[in-house]
Batch of 4 targets.
Target 1
Amino acid sequence: MKQKSVAVVGAAETTNMGKIPNQSVLGLHADAALNAMKDAGLTAKDIDGVATAGESPTEIAHYLGITPTYVDGTSVGGCSFMLHVRHAAAAINEGLCNTVLITHAESGRSRVGSRGFGRDPASQMGQFEVPFGVTSPPTMFTIPVLRYMKEVGVTEEDLAMVAVIQREWAAKNPRASYRDPITVDDVLNSDMIAWPFRKLMCCLVTDGGGALILTSAERAKDFPQKPVYILGTGESVETPMVSQMEDFTTSKAFRVSGKKAFDEAGIKHADVDHLMIYDAFAHLPLYGLEDLGFVKRGEAAAFIRERNTAIGGKLPLNTNGGGLSYMHSGMYGMYALQESIRQMRGIAPAQVPNAKISIAHGVGGMFGASGTIVFSNEKP
């Protein structure tokens, strides 16, 4: 991708967040989309590309009255929206479309119009993991994290510290689901879900969504909001079965996706002012920091413990509160992208001073997929 050739010109989340019992999944998609269009000063007739995951892009386009020339229904889990950004940028550069709407919405808590959680018994996971009790995210992510803890020396207290610091960020965010301070002891005394995960180490279950609008950087200056340029992108997948990871202590998809994005952006780690790492569970920021190359293997827990990622730290991380305290309706990637964009626009509740480069890094499934987007607010 040509550097800074595509920009985000519209970004918004659903009007309400958290518990929304009076809106269906499709209604939440429309709410987020209309809010993003309003943010960009556009209407449905100005959109010629549609991308979404969870719902069919055909459903979204029809419901909103859009007749697209570009459609993307890529669905690889929570990082799908990072991949949508990457694909949309490529499509705009190739002239397949001019203006792409990416939507996300889930009724994760209220389950209004939501699809079931059933595992296909004919799938690889259905055949080779489900029969042995590996059925839900807490029972899947425990497999790599226990090996990681043993080999690297990470403790339960280290995992708890991730949740504690992210709650500190959430306290600055009026839209965060949970804002009250917590301590390491609070985390360790919360209910056991699946060893080593306590309740406060696990993501929230909420309702909500968000939407983005992308167009060429040349057109971006004509929109009401400050453009956020896409500097680099990456994506990869590894395995649909967490038990078949090449190495439980590192994600191949993270490494490949992150390196691709860094190389394309032409940046160094020291250039990054702000970082979002998908945190469905408390161990994911540790993997992300190491696999993206911000710290060496085994150093992430100490990096966080020393408050490098906290308020006032040298690498602000998950500044919206993350999936542990802000929002997690099921596929969290959209919320990470939204916070990166707020930071680049300079309007985040916990704004990082003078931030010029932000990275949003996502996971799909249980380390099955990954997407990485490098954003910049500097003009091309």
Note: The two ends are 14 Å apart (CA to CA).
Target 2
Amino acid sequence: MLDLAAVEPLVQPLAAALTARGRRLATAESCTGGLIAAACTALAGSSLWFERGFVTYSNEAKTELLGVPTSLIAAHGAVSEEVARAMAAGALARSHADIAVAVTGIAGPGGATPGKPVGLVWLAWSTRDGTAGAHRLQLPGDRAAVRAATVAEALRQALALA
């Protein structure tokens, strides 16, 4: 379970930065199952800057809700840079947000495959001004630790973009 108080020091400056610039955030989450959105909306007044969140745990949800091509998932796997980037782009395209962050990963304890160990997470972002990117995280710990660290990294990335 995510300790929302632990990420509040990340959410408050994010809220302030987005509010000051009149920007809004959308999230697309797989391995975190909505924890990034929960962290954002735990802060009173978040409706001013948090636009929406997509929880796309299954491959079908990634395709149906975010427009991630099934061929992309088939070619690279759901936990890949390509899919994370498509998730972020899809969240931006299907929202009124200015910034979208997306995460897909293997939180464990199972699910690892050759070349994709437990703790592997892809974090991607896309903005209305055309900024896009992704980076690979290899996070230590159990399922809860991987998910909590992913939330923190996503919030840090959103703040950098805000």
Note: The CA atoms of residues 49 and 73 lie 31 Å apart.
Target 3
Amino acid sequence: MRSYLAALRSRLRSQPCLDLPFLCILLLLLSLGLLMLFSAGYAVALYRRGDAYTYIRPQLLFAALGLAAMYAASLVDYHIWHKLAWPIMGLSLLLLVIVLFMPEYNGCKRWIVLPGLGTLQPSEIAKFAVVLVFSHIISLNHDRMQGFAAGVLPFGILLGLVAVLMLLEPHLSGTLLILSIGAVLMFVGGTGLRWFALAGGLGVGAVFAAVLALPQLVPYAADRLSSWRDPFADPLGEGHQTIQSLYAIASGGVAGLGLGNSRQKYLYVPEPQNDFIFSILCEELGFVGAALVIFLFLLLLLRGITLAVRARDKFGALLVVGFVVQVVLQAILNIAVVTNTIPNTGISLPFFSSGGTSLLMLLGEMGIVLSVSRQTDAV
């Protein structure tokens, strides 16, 4: 046993160093996220479950599991994901079908109930799968990406399948995010610009087709659009969440009311521990705290781009771009919703919002980014 542990320690010491700046930024975001989750969620947790630790306790567990998964993923050669890309995509499509037979929650079917274990959100696995498969295909066909057969067709089929299944839930924000991630990877991978213009026209047609084929989306989307344009027209209905969010942001001012001192989290902002946690952050930490969080997300993006540029091959670069862009795009969409810049789409804030599946997947993805960083030249 001792000889085995000694060999393991020796192997770990021989591993190339991972990127410390990226890791530090990531750990700062995670720490702030856990702190804000407890502060924003303890009141509603106490009211709903009689236990102030209802949301933070499992989040801490998933954070610990996620950090372990991140470290393990950082030690594994990232080229192994070439072999796992298609199986994981197949699994994600299967889960996206299964979730359609699950009970509704808030008018949507986004979670698979695992008895005794909690819930699983297939859309989180779908994001991971899209990045893996797109990176896999592009790295194998990078010199043929200008053509339709290699540069457009396989990606269009995959994105179409995932988008249709997610619209059936319906999960508009998740669909938009996955389509955006796919488009970024195709652009970075070398798909011809003329195909993006064509995709724009087809996208408009797809929206109209979705409206006709999925009539349940019409009232769902129409209500969200109406409340976005004028949330005060229905202050006790569709506009309630947005109005309370704006009150929280305005109350924070420059320096905030202080950590733990939010008033809006006391059952005024619905789901303060989830999609609208950023509004509580603004109220407690003010403009300064909100700017710091946004700055950290931007630093994560910039450091990720640096790692992608220095990656030894196309596959590693695409993995880094895909995972980092996913985090930052999701943060942008969430902040835009909370500030009523775009309609409410029900999207979480990475590393901050309550959600075990999301946090575990995010940290695992960051582990892959760190794995790529082990095989780059030092700055």
Note: The first strand starts at residue 112 and ends at 114.
Target 4
Amino acid sequence: MRLDPFSIQYSTRPTATWQRILAAGPRVGYDDQLQAWLIAGHDNVHRVLADTGRFSNTATLFPVMPVSAAAGAVLAGLTATPVLVTADPPQHQRIRRIVRDFFPNTPSTAERRWGALVRARVDEQVAELAGRTDVDLMDVAVWLPLQVVVDVLGLPIGTRPLRAWTDQFAALVWGNPSPEQQLAAAHGAVALWQYCTNVVTGHATSGNPGRGLIGDLLAYRDGDDARLTLDEVAAIILNIFGAGWETVSAALGQALFHALREPDRWARLAHDEHYLAAHVEETLRHSPAIDGWLRLTRDEVVLDGVTIPAGARCLVLIGTAGHDPAVFPEPYVFDPGRARLSQHVAFGAGPHYCLGAALARLELTTTLRELARRLPQLTLHGGHQRGFKPSAGLRQDITLPASTGAAGSCPVAPPATPGAQP
């Protein structure tokens, strides 16, 4: 089985690769290039993501491709304790219970805590777009979730290096950088970790726990390492920052592309809340921001009739899960009116289901609604050919050029009939 995630074909049309893999026969196979087992299909992917007993998370943020000795030596300075994304039981459950108390995980609680914050950041982005004719919507998709996650965590304002460091970290983990690029990315990843450590330590030693999640966690810690260590607090911030920015950025770009492909979709986003929610869920199914995720087998595992040895790296192909015709008929058609949308696994499954799912949905729906209402004539440039950053896991548009037309207000109309087709 071959994925070839860094090919031009995959970086422009990954769905063709998913279709080939799903139709080829056994949906579990070894990829010699990646030196990893590929796991495809909805049921296989769901089973692996939910099974923390047989599949470990310790390798989740290990680079997919081998790194040079020089880059590896630098990465030795990234000493973050496993807490959420990379933790296994019982550490994962302990940390997750603590964070969950401070991180709303339902639409209503997320709206109460963060709704005003997200709308304020969206207002800033809309004001910038309204003053220009030609824009790149990926600027919005990048900067809006970055500003929101900085606010939510309580990080200092004006930290522009955060974008570069996180991009480097993502490229190192999911990309195929040259040895020189690996070395620079390793330094960026360590700088991001040191930044998180310095912010947390600074608040703790000053006696001022700060704001946002950092303040919540330090107040909970109350100086007691038996509750939380400073290293654990910093590692939580690192995990949520990476997961809460790059992924939402990629998802927002995907949602905007699908919305603007057809004018009727864009108009409905402005006033039809049912359609808005369905559009977001169909985006997550059809075009997941994370379409590959690493796991490590604890013991020998038989999956889909194939034996995977103990200690093997497994690349779980989330993109194939949403495109499995056994669960989603005509999966390559973007259809917000389809059934079983709740069965997508874009936010994972089981004990590691994304803690930030409610916040991500809030950001996506708020941004789409406000842009559609206030920039009703927004259109993608004709002839635009999509391209994604070369990656085995993160599916993020490089650019989305668009024209704003005349800024205006889209009147709010009565909701359309639930379940109506786009």
Note: The chain has 15 helices and ten strands.
